[in-house]
Amino acid sequence: MKICLACNQRFDQVTWTCPHCGQTPSLKEGYLAFAPELAQASEGFEAKFFAQLVEVEANNFWFRSRNRLIIWALQRYFPQARNFLEIGCGTGFVLSGIERAFPHLTVSGSEIFTKGLEFAAQRLTHAQLFQMDARQIPFDNEFEVAGAFDVLEHIQEDTTVLGEMYKTTFRGGELYSLFPNTLGYGVKMMNTVIMFAGIQRKN
Ligand SMILES: [Zn+2]
Description:
7-stranded mixed beta sheet, 6 helices, binds zinc ion
């Protein structure tokens, strides 16, 4: 279901105009923007780095290996998944790999910077892209899999984000694939964040 961030009501329809209060999310650079005030500035990541990222990602062992790992995990643990949301999709490198590997999967990507979405749109063929603050995700019980890759450890309110991701996924399953930067974050830290987010860890 969709969530109206203006009145916090849930609704289930194709369009984003809230049937309860009439609010429609704005557009920023052509993308649905759920937190437009944050679309061009942040403390953790400079939007100008996106252009540099695009240059190195395709031929870099780290990004290529990480894509293989993510695709393997999706095939191994979520072979029946019909939709997938990536939080913090950046330039869309992960999503482009997922699109190729799972042509029938409905793919969505969110990014706080519209600049990242511009690069992502060039790489992707059918993903739905939108600008969003991961601390306030406008979905409830909507996606079978939600992933955030090297994202959580850069967000101060990581517990909030994890709780929001949990909220967006279908109830009753192990519906996550998370690969934080373990050098800076660590398994112990991850477990603590999961605990505070009120999520039961299965593996
Ligand atoms: Zn509303």
